[in-house]
Recover the amino acids of this structure.
């Protein structure tokens, strides 16, 4: 934490130099109120300070200053949020709850449409109006897989003005971006907004130590989004959206974090000849690595505003296709080359109604989802892997995994007095899953492929879960600028089938949360100060473990989480903006015993009392920005952001090698706006101190090693923007 403070002070000193040079100290101005964002986190429009929950909301200006375009950028802004990616699977955790494996535990919505897979949250999130991050279970209004919280991306809607911009950027690692937006009002009732984005990174973050070897974590993408809004009548609006993305390149990877154990070398002697670099951002992978992702979606929102009631229909459809080749041993021998192929189609439909019935504000609705997925993964053990001989093939295939979700919900706020409000709501959900799968082994003797040996003959299985997720609470206004709240709520994260076993089911997670908080605006509303305390009773945590040739999701019986969060934004005048947050977390298993496949000689270990995965005890984010007065050549804005994490673990055994040591990241930006605000230049540096940090980890006893992916190294770049 001391290092975090030192880094921030260094950034602040540089910004203060700019302030002194601009003469701001000689001409102080009066206080400037912190902007109060209007959010729709509770499916109705209200001030973010009136939402009785822990929520962080970022408007368009804040997002642009910090260069936020995907979920991973938010972890250095939002309290208690951790993200990372492993082999294309994006993991999010909030307060230690989320995707360790299995179903996602933090729900992502884009323009009100639920995104069935976490990776969809990384797609085409540009030209944003705001981002809302709700912390804590949101089972009542958002339902399944919102155990940890919700991330809402709200893209910019078409306006009544002809406008747009062109943006281009270049950064280290030969990374380029070209983006354009055009907004066209066709008449006084119909308007459209088109976004196109082209991104390319030619030089991979992960360097290959083998001469001529393929560098990794690079690629290119082309995406677009079209939004059309039409006022069908004076009180009936139709919003249509279409998005698409195509991305390619060797972006999927992991590297080994420790050399193979003696036991694994004894079982697979070729490991003794493997070159295994354990330095950050280094690999010796020799097999081809590639990925090809195609995504398309469409949505339609019909809003009918009546005198006291708003009725809304939100329809969404998406298709996602991923094909990839991977070097799943990540070293210079062809031990574990893998191929993967996944396709999914998702249809969602929500109807909701909101309004007031006397002193009661009501929201209610119905939700339906139909999701269908195909998945194939194959390993080619050219050198063999104990106990399989060389030339063996291991094939997993889920021909069809269908999910149907039905839900009904209601949420009410009773305004008992002008200051006191009582809260209550409940959601009833049913999830039905049906899976058709077949897995087999195939041996190759002297170049002749033998008939497959089915480890899971072709079969179809189904499972069904029902859940009830209520919320009750109260909120009281201490005065016009401060309120306190307390809530009890439940969350539900759906279970599923293990694709790499046969009719093997993992159970849903359940969570009961108790939270109290205060929200305030102080010092003539120049300071926003919010705080929350919480306690979670957490059961059936979904965890992943690779044992031998099988990767299984299993349930840890119980855990508890206690924490405190404080976040603040202060604008003492129209030059300075200072923001920060701190999170203190005590997240531990209370009941769980497991065998560590990397140390089986230790037998069954009782890990009760160990820390949960991705749950640092202390984390903090802080930023300071200074904006000059208008100068003859325009205006300058300087910004420094620092993010700190204490030591945390990726595996339940809390071995030192399972840990990411405490680290601090520093981001810097200098922005010039022309006098007419038509042109902008942003110079930026991310991870300026080039701090190596692990963002995801798994383990495999086949190599007796942990495998990891790394956060981005230092990048510096320039971004040019022209508005029209």
């Amino acid at each position: 934490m001391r290092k975090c403070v030192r880094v921030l002070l260094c950034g602040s000193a540089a910004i203060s130099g700019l302030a002194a040079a601009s003469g701001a100290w000689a001409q102080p101005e009066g206080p400037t109120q912190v902007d109060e964002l209007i959010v729709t986190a509770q499916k109705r429009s209200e001030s973010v300070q009136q939402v009785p929950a822990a929520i962080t909301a970022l408007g368009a200006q804040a997002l642009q200053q910090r260069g936020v375009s995907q979920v991973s950028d938010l972890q250095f802004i939002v309290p208690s949020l951790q993200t990372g990616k492993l082999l294309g699977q994006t993991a999010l955790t909030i307060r230690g709850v989320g995707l360790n494996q299995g179903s996602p535990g933090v729900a992502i919505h884009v323009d009100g449409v639920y995104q069935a897979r976490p990776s969809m949250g990384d797609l085409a999130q540009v030209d944003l109006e705001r981002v809302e991050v709700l912390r804590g279970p949101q089972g009542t209004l958002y339902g399944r897989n919102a155990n940890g919280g919700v991330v809402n991306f709200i893209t910019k809607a078409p306006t009544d003005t002809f406008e747009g911009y062109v943006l281009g950027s270049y950064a280290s690692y030969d990374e380029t971006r070209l983006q354009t937006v055009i907004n066209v009002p066709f008449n006084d009732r119909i308007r459209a907004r088109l976004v196109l984005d082209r991104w390319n990174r030619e030089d991979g973050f992960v360097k290959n130590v083998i001469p001529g070897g393929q560098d990794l974590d690079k690629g290119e993408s082309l995406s677009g989004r079209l939004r059309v809004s039409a006022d069908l009548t004076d009180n009936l609006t139709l919003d249509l959206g279409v998005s698409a993305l195509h991305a390619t390149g060797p972006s999927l990877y992991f590297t080994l974090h420790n050399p193979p154990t003696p036991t694994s070398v004894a079982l697979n002697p070729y490991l003794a000849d493997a070159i295994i670099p354990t330095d950050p951002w280094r690999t010796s992978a020799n097999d081809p690595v590639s990925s090809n992702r195609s995504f398309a979606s469409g949505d339609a929102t019909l809003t009918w505003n009546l005198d006291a009631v708003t009725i809304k229909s939100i329809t969404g459809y998406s298709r996602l296709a991923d094909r990839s080749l991977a070097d799943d041993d990540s070293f210079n021998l062809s031990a574990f080359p893998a191929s993967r192929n996944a396709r999914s189609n998702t249809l969602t439909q929500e109807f909701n109604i909101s309004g007031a019935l006397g002193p009661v504000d009501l929201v209610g609705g119905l939700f339906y989802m139909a999701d269908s997925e195909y998945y194939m993964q194959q390993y080619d053990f050219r050198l063999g892997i104990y106990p399989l001989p060389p030339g063996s093939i291991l094939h997993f295939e889920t021909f069809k995994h269908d999910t149907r979700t039905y839900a009904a919900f209601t949420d009410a706020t009773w305004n008992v007095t002008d200051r006191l409000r009582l809260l209550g709501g409940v959601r009833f959900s049913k999830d039905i899953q049906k899976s058709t799968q077949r897995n087999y082994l195939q041996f190759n003797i002297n170049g002749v492929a033998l008939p497959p040996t089915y480890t899971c003959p072709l079969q179809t299985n189904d499972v069904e879960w029902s859940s009830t997720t209520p919320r009750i609470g109260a909120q009281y206004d201490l005065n016009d600028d401060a309120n306190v709240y307390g809530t009890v709520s439940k969350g539900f994260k759906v279970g599923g089938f293990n694709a790499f076993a046969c009719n093997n089911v993992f159970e849903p997670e359940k969570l009961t949360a108790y939270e109290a908080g205060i929200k305030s605006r102080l010092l003539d509303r120049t300071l926003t100060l919010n705080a929350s305390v919480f306690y979670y009773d957490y059961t059936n945590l979904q965890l992943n473990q690779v044992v031998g040739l099988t990767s299984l999701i299993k349930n840890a019986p119980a855990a508890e989480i206690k924490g405190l969060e404080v976040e603040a934004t202060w604008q003492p005048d129209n030059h300075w903006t200072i923001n920060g947050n701190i999170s203190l977390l005590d997240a531990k298993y209370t009941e769980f015993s497991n065998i560590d496949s990397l140390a089986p000689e230790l037998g069954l270990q009782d890990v009760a009392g160990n820390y949960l995965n991705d749950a640092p005890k202390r984390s903090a984010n802080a930023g300071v920005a200074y904006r000059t007065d208008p100068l003859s050549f325009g205006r300058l804005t300087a910004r420094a952001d620092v993010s700190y994490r204490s030591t945390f673990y990726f595996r339940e055994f809390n071995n030192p090698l399972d840990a990411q040591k405490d680290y601090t990241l520093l981001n810097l930006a200098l922005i010039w706006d022309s006098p007419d605000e038509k042109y902008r230049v942003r110079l930026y540096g991310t991870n300026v101190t080039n701090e190596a940090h692990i963002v995801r980890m798994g383990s495999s006893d086949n190599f007796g090693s942990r495998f990891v992916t790394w956060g981005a190294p230092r990048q510096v770049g320039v971004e040019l923007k022209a508005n029209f």
About this structure: The first strand starts at residue 38 and ends at 39. Confidence is low (pLDDT under 50) at residues 21-28. Helices lie at 2-22, 60-66, 262-267. The chain has three helices and 45 strands.
